[in-house]
Design goal:
The complex is a heterodimer of chains A (about 600) and B (about 475).
Chain A lengths: L1 E9 L2 E5 L8 E7 L2 E11 L2 E6 L11 E8 L1 E4 L7 E2 L28 E6 L6 E2 L4 E7 L2 E6 L8 E6 L3 E4 L5 E4 L5 E4 L3 E4 L22 H6 L7 E5 L6 H11 L4 E7 L3 H10 L16 E6 L6 H18 L4 E7 L1 H14 L13 H9 L3 E4 L5 E10 L9 H9 L2 E2 L4 H5 L12 E2 L5 H11 L3 H25 L6 H18 L13 H16 L10 H16 L6 H17 L9
Parallel strand pairs in A: 8-20, 18-23, 18-24, 19-20, 19-21, 21-23
Antiparallel strand pairs in A: 1-2, 1-6, 2-5, 3-4, 3-6, 4-5, 7-17, 9-11, 9-14, 10-13, 11-12, 13-15, 15-16, 22-23, 24-25
Helix pairs in contact in A: 4-5, 6-7, 10-11, 10-12, 11-12, 11-13, 13-14
Chain B lengths: L7 E2 L2 E4 L3 E5 L8 E4 L2 E9 L2 E6 L12 E3 L5 E4 L7 E2 L15 E4 L16 E2 L4 H4 L4 E2 L3 E7 L4 H11 L4 E9 L1 H13 L6 E7 L10 H15 L3 E7 L1 H14 L13 H9 L3 E2 L5 E10 L7 H9 L2 E8 L4 E4 L5 E2 L14 H23 L6 H18 L7 H15 L9 H7 L33
Parallel strand pairs in B: 9-15, 13-18, 13-19, 14-15, 14-16, 16-18
Antiparallel strand pairs in B: 1-7, 2-3, 3-6, 4-5, 4-7, 5-6, 8-10, 11-12, 17-18, 19-20, 19-21
The chains are: A alpha+beta (about 600), B alpha/beta (about 475).
C-alpha cells in the first residue's frame, strides 16, 4: 500500500502530496478522524494527485494520511447480487445498520458465507478465454454463470475444475493456465473496474428485435429494440418516473438494473416497498428477484453519483455475458452530468455550455455505447437495453445534456408538459418522439414476422394521421369550428381516436397498464380500420359527440380482459355504431 | 460555542470582501472560527494556508485581528429545551432567555439510509380545500409554495402550520423582513402554540450569507425531535429563493464559474441536501418540509424553482383569481406527488374521483373562457362551466377556506348537481348513487344537445381509475 499526505482541501476536491507513482482513477482512502474516506484520483500533476472524495470532507486536515489502493474503482461480481440494494459505490445498504449513513462505512456487496450449488460447464483440458462459462449456480430464478475472469487475457487451459457441489463464493472452483504457463486460481467472484467497458464478446450486431414493455406508445409507436438505447427527457411533473417504473415492472427482460442517480429518496422507497410485492408479468416470479437497485439519492455524496451509473452498467455487462437480457434504467443522467460539472468547476477547467465540462458529450456517448446486443464466444446471445431519463433545466430541450444524449440514443421519448397538463398519460409526445429502430430492416423483418407484414406501414400511417390531426387542430383553432370543411373535424377526431385508444394508457389500472403484443396488434388494426372508414356526416357538431362515443367504447375495451365476453360485446356495439354512420358504398360521404 | 483553550492566531495575510486567509496548522475543513469577534468557517485549506469565510463580511477586520478556531463544525445543542425558543443562524437565542441545554450535534449531518426510510402514509389536514382536496399533503413530504412576492405566502404558511397538528413546528426564516418575523411570532403566540414552535431566524437586518446556516440548523433540530422524540415535525422554510441568492453570492466570491441564472453549478445538490431531510422514520417520527420559493413574475423555468421542482414532491402554486378577488391554490399548476398514498385511503372513497372531475370541469371552464376571449360563441354548457368555476374557486380553491375534507367533498357534489347532469361529471356510478344531491330548484333546463364542447377537451372518464 502506498501512502501520501493531504495538502489542499476545497470541498470534496483534495490534493494529495505523494512520491508514489499514482495512476489516474486510482482509488485511495483518506484517514480523517476515525474514518477512512474513499476517493478517486482524477488528475495528476507532478507529485500532486487530485482526488475527488466520495464523502463529505468535513473535519479533514492538511497532513491527513492517504493510502493508495493500486486499483481503480471496481465492482464486485458474483452470485448474490440479485434483489440487493446498493449505493453508488456498491455498498450493500441493508448491511448498514444505522438510521443515518455513516461516513466511511463500507459494506461487502456479496455474502461471503453463503453457499452456492456449482455445476461445472467446462472440462479439464478445455481451451477457454475471458467470459467463457466455467460453471453455473442457481441464483433466484436464473442460472448464474461462473465465468473466466474478464481480466484474464488470451486463451487459457482449464487445469482443473471442481465437481458439482456446494461452494462459498471465495472457494476455488477452477485453476486455469495461461499461454505463459502461469496458473490462475478462479473463485466465483471477480472484480472489474467500472469505467472500462467489458468487451469480450464475439460480435455486436445491430439490434433486430423488440423489447416488449407492454406500453403501447413505446411498443407500437416507437419500439425499443432489445440491446438498444433510448432516453426520456421531460420537465418535472411530466411523469418520467412513473413511466420508468412502469417499464421496469413490465419489460420482458431477465434482469432489471435500476440506477437511481441523484433523484428523490421517496421514489426509491416506493420501489423498495412495491417491487417485493409485484409479480413479473412475463415469468410469474417475483419482480424483486430479478432486480438490482443502485440507489444514490440526491442527498447522498455527489461524487458517487457518477460512480453509480458505471457500477450499474458494469453489473449489466456481467449478466449480459451470461447470455441474459438485461434492462438498465438510469434516473436521471442529468444529475450525473451535474456531478461532472461540479467537479470540473472545482478543477478550474474551462467550461463549455451552461458550465458543463467540454467532454460531456463524449462521456455520454461512450456510456450509451456500452449497451448493445452481443453474440458471445460460445454462440449464445445477451443484451443490455439502456434507457436513461434526462431532466432538462427549465424544461428546455436545447440544453447540453439533452442534446448530447440525442446524438447517441436511438429512441427519443419526449415527455410533454402540455400532454401531462391535459392528463394524457404517458405524456410522451407522439409527434416529436421517434424510434430509429423502426427504420432498421432487421427490426422491420422481425416485426413483420411477429405482427404481420403490413405492421410497420400501419404504424407509420398512424403517425401520419396524428401529425395531420395536429395540423388540422391548429387550423380549426385559428379559423373557428364552422369555417373549416367538415373533413377537418373528421381528420382531427380520427387522430384523437388514436391518441385516446392507442397512445394513452392508464399506468395505475391492472389491465390497461400492460398490453400484450397480440392485443396491441389487434387494437391498432381496429383503430386504423375506423380511420379508413368514410363517414357520412352532415354537420360539424355531430362529429365530436360521435367520435367520443367510439373512443369511450374503445377505452372501455382497454380496461377489460382481452377477448373476454365483455370485450367482444363492446366490439359488437362498436361495429354497429360505425355501420350507422358509414358512408354507403355508392354514395360517397360528405 | 465555547472558545476556551482554542488555537489563536493573529497573522491574517489576505483579506477579501468575504474571506480572510492566514497561516495555521492542524485546522480541519468546515471548522467554525471567530475572526475579530465575527463568525467564520473554513472553506479552503491550501497546505498551511487556511481560508475562512466570514459570514458578516470582512469590513474593518485588520491583518492582526484575533482568529480563534473552535476545532469543530457548526453545531447545535439539541434537546427538549429548544421548544418555544427563538434563535439566530448560529443557534444563539434571540429571545433574551438562557442558552438551552442539550447534546451538541453538528449541523448538516449525514443522510438517512434509503432502506431505513418508510413510505410516507399519513394525511396532513390543513383545512384549505385547494390543498386537502386537490393536493393532499403527507407526513414526510417536501413541498414548496411557488408564489410571487406580492402573494400572502407567509400568512398561508403560518395558517397551514397551525392547523397541521404537528407535534413541533420549526420555522427557518431566511431574509425574513422584521415585520414578517414579528407577524409569525404574534400568530403563533396568539394561537397559544409557542411551546411547540422553534424558530431560527435570519432577518433582512442580518448578513445575507448567514442565512446559509438556517436550513441546517432548523433540520438538525427537526431530526432531534423526529428521531429521538419520535415526533411529527413540520419544518417551514421561507424564503428559499433568498437562500439560493446567498449561495450565489458565496459562489461568486469564491470565484466559481456560474451556471444558469448566475446560480452555482451545485444548486441542485445544495437544495437536495436540504429537502431530502424530509423523511418518514420507521419509529413513527417524521419530518415534513413546507417551503416558499418566491418567483419573479410567475416564471418557473428560472433555475431556482426549476431545480426545486425536480427535488420536491410537487408544488403549491398561488394565484389571484380576479373573478372572486381572492388568492387561490391553482389546481392546474399545483401538484402533490404523494397524494395518491392517502386520498381515498385515509379520506372518503370518492375523493380521487371528485377531485379529478372538479378539476376537469374547471379546465372546461378555462377553455370556455379562452373561447369567449377569442370572440367565439359560447354554448350553454360553456356558460354552465363558467358559473361552476366561479363557485368552485370561491367555495373550494380560495385559501381562506377552512373546512374538513368531508365537507369539501360534499360541497363539490353540491356544485356538480347545481350546474351539471350526472353524465357530464364522469364519475363512477357507485359514487353518484351515494353522493349525488339533486337540486331541482337550481336545475338548468336544457333543450339542446350538449355536443358543442370545445375541441380537444373531452369529458370521458378515462382517468378516473388513476388513483383508486
Amino acid at each position: 500500500m502506498e501512502k501520501g499526505k493531504v495538502k489542499n482541501i476545497i470541498s470534496n476536491l483534495v490534493t494529495v502530496e505523494t512520491d508514489y507513482s499514482v495512476a489516474q482513477n486510482e482509488i485511495c482512502f483518506i484517514r480523517t478522524g476515525q474514518s477512512d474516506l474513499m476517493g478517486g484520483v482524477i488528475k495528476v500533476a507532478g507529485n500532486h494527485a487530485f482526488v475527488q472524495v466520495y464523502e463529505s470532507t468535513r473535519g479533514m486536515k492538511a497532513g491527513d494520511e492517504v493510502n493508495f489502493q493500486g486499483h481503480m474503482l471496481e465492482t464486485t461480481l458474483g452470485p448474490g447480487l440479485l434483489s440487493k440494494k446498493f449505493d453508488g459505490l456498491q455498498n450493500d445498504l441493508n448491511k448498514m445498520q444505522n438510521l443515518f449513513l455513516q461516513r466511511g462505512e463500507y459494506t461487502d456487496a456479496l455474502e461471503h458465507e453463503s453457499e452456492w450449488e456449482f455445476s461445472p460447464l467446462a472440462e479439464t483440458g478445455q481451451s477457454i478465454q475471458a467470459g467463457d462459462w466455467l460453471g453455473e449456480v442457481p441464483e433466484k430464478n436464473i442460472s448464474h454463470k461462473i465465468m473466466v475472469p474478464f481480466k484474464l487475457e488470451g486463451m487459457l487451459i482449464v487445469k482443473s475444475i471442481v465437481d458439482k457441489g456446494l461452494y462459498k463464493i471465495t472457494d476455488t472452483v477452477a485453476v486455469l493456465q495461461d499461454f505463459q504457463g502461469t496458473e490462475h486460481i478462479v473463485s466465483m467472484i471477480q472484480k472489474w473496474p467500472v469505467t472500462i467497458p467489458v468487451k469480450i464478446h464475439e460480435e455486436k450486431p445491430r439490434p433486430f428485435q423488440l423489447l416488449h414493455t407492454g406500453i403501447r406508445l413505446i411498443d407500437t409507436m416507437n419500439p425499443l429494440a432489445e440491446g438498444g438505447t433510448g432516453f426520456i427527457p421531460g420537465p418535472f411533473g411530466s411523469g418520467k418516473t412513473v413511466l420508468q417504473h412502469a417499464i421496469a415492472k413490465q419489460a420482458q427482460a431477465d434482469i432489471i438494473l435500476f440506477a437511481a442517480c441523484g433523484e428523490r429518496a421517496n421514489e426509491i422507497v416506493e420501489i423498495f416497498t412495491e417491487f417485493p410485492k409485484l409479480e413479473d408479468p412475463n415469468t410469474g416470479g417475483l419482480l424483486m428477484d430479478k432486480t438490482i437497485i443502485i440507489a444514490n439519492t440526491s442527498n447522498m455524496p455527489v461524487a458517487s453519483r457518477e460512480a453509480s451509473v458505471y457500477t450499474a452498467m458494469t453489473m449489466a455487462e456481467y449478466y449480459r455475458t451470461m447470455g441474459l437480457k438485461v434492462l438498465l434504467l438510469a434516473d436521471s443522467t442529468s444529475r450525473w452530468a451535474q456531478a461532472l460539472r461540479e467537479m470540473s468547476n472545482r478543477l478550474e477547467e474551462l467550461p463549455g455550455t451552461d458550465a458543463f465540462p467540454m467532454d460531456l458529450s463524449a462521456i455520454i456517448s461512450n456510456f450509451y455505447a456500452r449497451a448493445g446486443f452481443v453474440k458471445l464466444h460460445n454462440g449464445k446471445q445477451g443484451s443490455i437495453t439502456f434507457l436513461g431519463t434526462v431532466s432538462p433545466a427549465g424544461g428546455n430541450l436545447k440544453e447540453p445534456v439533452t442534446e448530447a444524449t440525442k446524438k447517441v440514443a436511438r429512441c427519443y421519448y419526449a415527455l410533454s408538459q402540455q400532454r401531462a397538463d391535459s392528463k394524457r398519460y404517458p405524456a410522451i409526445d407522439p409527434v416529436d418522439s421517434y424510434s430509429k429502430y423502426l427504420e432498421y430492416l432487421e427490426v422491420q423483418r422481425t416485426l413483420g414476422a411477429q405482427l404481420g407484414d403490413t405492421w410497420v406501414d400501419t404504424v407509420i400511417e398512424a403517425k401520419d394521421i396524428l401529425l395531420k390531426g395536429r395540423e388540422t387542430y391548429e387550423q380549426i383553432n385559428i379559423l373557428g369550428d364552422d369555417s373549416v370543411p367538415l373533413e377537418y373535424h373528421e381528420k382531427y377526431w380520427k387522430s384523437e381516436l388514436i391518441d385516446f385508444v392507442i397512445l394513452q394508457q392508464d399506468a395505475f389500472d391492472a389491465i390497461d397498464s400492460y398490453t400484450s403484443l397480440e392485443r396491441q396488434r389487434y387494437m391498432l388494426y381496429a383503430v386504423i380500420d375506423v380511420c379508413h372508414t368514410e363517414f357520412n356526416f352532415q354537420l360539424f357538431d355531430e362529429i365530436a359527440p360521435y367520435f367520443k362515443k367510439i373512443i369511450d367504447m374503445f377505452k372501455q375495451m382497454n380496461y377489460i380482459e382481452f377477448q373476454s365476453n365483455a370485450f367482444n360485446q363492446y366490439w359488437k356495439v362498436l361495429e354497429e355504431l360505425i355501420n350507422q354512420k358509414k358512408a354507403k358504398e355508392h354514395e360517397p360521404g360528405i | 460555542m465555547s472558545l476556551a483553550f482554542k488555537k489563536i492566531y493573529t497573522n491574517i495575510s489576505h483579506i477579501t470582501k468575504a474571506t480572510c486567509t492566514l497561516k495555521a496548522t492542524g485546522i480541519s475543513n468546515e471548522e467554525l472560527a471567530m475572526v475579530d469577534g465575527k463568525y467564520a468557517q473554513v472553506v479552503k485549506i491550501m497546505g498551511n494556508k487556511v481560508t475562512l469565510q466570514v459570514f458578516e463580511g470582512t469590513e474593518g477586520i485588520p491583518k492582526n485581528a484575533e482568529v480563534i478556531f473552535s476545532g469543530k463544525a457548526p453545531s447545535l445543542k439539541v434537546g427538549r429545551e429548544l421548544a418555544g425558543r427563538f434563535f439566530n443562524a448560529y443557534g444563539i437565542p434571540i429571545d433574551g432567555k438562557h442558552i438551552p441545554d442539550g447534546t451538541e450535534v453538528e449541523i448538516g449531518g449525514p443522510s438517512v439510509n434509503p432502506v431505513r426510510r418508510r413510505q410516507p402514509a399519513e394525511f396532513i389536514a390543513t383545512g384549505i380545500a385547494g390543498i386537502d382536496l386537490n393536493n393532499a399533503l403527507v407526513t414526510g413530504q417536501k413541498i414548496p409554495f411557488f408564489a410571487d412576492s406580492d402573494q400572502p405566502y407567509n400568512q398561508i404558511m403560518a395558517m397551514v402550520a397551525l392547523r397541521a397538528q404537528a407535534d413541533k413546528i420549526i420555522l427557518g426564516g431566511m431574509g425574513l423582513t422584521n415585520d414578517d418575523y414579528l407577524y409569525y411570532r404574534n400568530v403563533f403566540d396568539n394561537a397559544g402554540a409557542l411551546t411547540r414552535i422553534i424558530s431560527f431566524i435570519n432577518t433582512t437586518e442580518d448578513p445575507a450569507v448567514e442565512r446559509l446556516l438556517i436550513p441546517d440548523m432548523a433540520l438538525t433540530a427537526a431530526e432531534y425531535f423526529a428521531v429521538q422524540e419520535k415526533e411529527k415535525v413540520l419544518v417551514l422554510l421561507t424564503d428559499m429563493t433568498l437562500y439560493c441568492d446567498a449561495l450565489s453570492i458565496v459562489s461568486n466570491r469564491m470565484d466559481q464559474i456560474p451556471s444558469r441564472d448566475s446560480m452555482p453549478g451545485s444548486l441542485y445538490s445544495d437544495l437536495a441536501r436540504i429537502y431530502e431531510k424530509a423523511a418518514q422514520f420507521p419509529d413513527g417520527g417524521s419530518i415534513t418540509i413546507i417551503s416558499v420559493t418566491s418567483l419573479s413574475g410567475g416564471d418557473i423555468t428560472h433555475s431556482i424553482p426549476d431545480n426545486t421542482g425536480y427535488i420536491t414532491e410537487g408544488q403549491l402554486f398561488l394565484r389571484r383569481d380576479t373573478d372572486i378577488g381572492k388568492v387561490i391554490i391553482d389546481p392546474f399548476r399545483s401538484l402533490s406527488r404523494l397524494k395518491q398514498l392517502v386520498i381515498g385511503k385515509q379520506t372518503r372513497g370518492d375523493h380521487a374521483q371528485v377531485m379529478n372531475a372538479a378539476v376537469r370541469l374547471y379546465a372546461d371552464a378555462m377553455n370556455a373562457r379562452t373561447k369567449m376571449e377569442n370572440g367565439f360563441d359560447l354554448t350553454e354548457y360553456d356558460q354552465r362551466t363558467l358559473d361552476f368555476a366561479k363557485e368552485y374557486a370561491r367555495l373550494l380553491l380560495a385559501v381562506d377556506v377552512n373546512i374538513q375534507v368531508e365537507r369539501m367533498l360534499d360541497t363539490a357534489w353540491e356544485l356538480f348537481a347545481r350546474y351539471f347532469k350526472k353524465e357530464e361529471i364522469g364519475i363512477k356510478q357507485q359514487w353518484i348513487e351515494t353522493y349525488w344531491k339533486e337540486q331541482p330548484e337550481n336545475r338548468i333546463e336544457t333543450n339542446q344537445e350538449l355536443n358543442h364542447e370545445h375541441l380537444g377537451r373531452i369529458n370521458i372518464s378515462f382517468r378516473n381509475k388513476e388513483v383508486e
